[in-house]
């Protein structure tokens, strides 16, 4: 099965171009106004229309209202809505009722991570496992204990949904991460140099993920 590779936090037309020419499967955009990587939906819409990336487009939101998501969708043809806040099951259900696309839920790794994941069984259509950092919802560049990956992966398999690993993934640790056989990765700061996406780093990471998946499939 093709590994999922989400390049997140794209902020410029150049970022999108680099992602479009990579082996990534998803390109992510932050629609959280207080976040450092927030981009105006109008700009993303123009760039996407011009570049026409083949990757699926993921909009990242934190505790959004239906109107906030609707506003983004007026400009950006999202394929996936990713919720990265403290959204409840009922709030996720309301979003699913309003928008005909998969909704992914980010889970912050801690002792309750798996039980929270189970709460969303049959509701969330995918999960992102991220590091828990006080005062931040994501994009911290901090890793979590990757020994926990098989447990999250097993639960996602039971629910028959994708599960991507996020938090501090970069070219220097991608080899180690892949030994835990994640189904996919979600990377942002780890593919940047001076705040811009770095095509060389994107290639290093995607090559490792695709190569490992191929090797694992053959074995």
UniProtKB/TrEMBL annotation:
It comes from the Bacteria. Keywords: Amino-acid biosynthesis, Aromatic amino acid biosynthesis, Isomerase, Tryptophan biosynthesis. CDD domains: PRAI. One of its GO terms (biological process) is L-tryptophan biosynthetic process. GO terms for molecular function: phosphoribosylanthranilate isomerase activity. Residues 6-207 form the N-(5'phosphoribosyl) anthranilate isomerase (PRAI) domain. It is an enzyme of class 5 (isomerase). SUPFAM superfamilies: Ribulose-phoshate binding barrel. Belongs to the TrpF family. HAMAP family: PRAI. This is N-(5'-phosphoribosyl)anthranilate isomerase.
